[in-house]
UniProtKB/TrEMBL annotation:
<dbReference type="InterPro" id="IPR004360">
    <property type="entry name" value="Glyas_Fos-R_dOase_dom"/>
</dbReference>
<dbReference type="GO" id="GO:0004462">
    <property type="term" value="F:lactoylglutathione lyase activity"/>
</dbReference>
<protein>
    <recommendedName>
        <fullName>Aldoketomutase</fullName>
    </recommendedName>
</protein>
<dbReference type="GO" id="GO:0019243">
    <property type="term" value="P:methylglyoxal catabolic process to D-lactate via S-lactoyl-glutathione"/>
</dbReference>
<dbReference type="InterPro" id="IPR037523">
    <property type="entry name" value="VOC_core"/>
</dbReference>
<dbReference type="Pfam" id="PF00903">
    <property type="entry name" value="Glyoxalase"/>
</dbReference>
<feature type="domain" description="VOC">
    <location>
        <begin position="2"/>
        <end position="120"/>
    </location>
</feature>
<dbReference type="GO" id="GO:0005737">
    <property type="term" value="C:cytoplasm"/>
</dbReference>
<dbReference type="InterPro" id="IPR029068">
    <property type="entry name" value="Glyas_Bleomycin-R_OHBP_Dase"/>
</dbReference>
Amino acid sequence: MKYLHAMVRVRDLDASLRFFADGLGLRETRRKDVPQGRFTLVYLGAPENPEAEVELTWNYDDEDYGSARNFGHLAFAVDDIYALCAHLQGMGVTINRPPRDGHMAFVRSPDGISIELLQKGGPLPPAEPWASMANTGSW
């Protein structure tokens, strides 16, 4: 058996690609447009293991997918959790669980999909502005 991908339905393909590609740094590995079925599939992979893909399914007809909490989350190991969170925040992404411990953070895609970011190796030393969030309890 071989793991292939996790599929998530998205409502705005351009916004989702901006988040996953421009924000997280995933790369599009392939795309399949199926106009007769009224959907497009876009596969993205992380640079270090592109074969483990995230499939974005965009249905042409508007549909309410709910809160997406039943999906769980996608997880990515990152080189510098502080830098990535600052980058995402600069793009207007809300950091739902800041990396105040230098190890873990959670953000949400434009479709409300929970994304866990984990620092490669051990946690980074506490750094501002993230470290002060541990004392305030805000997140």
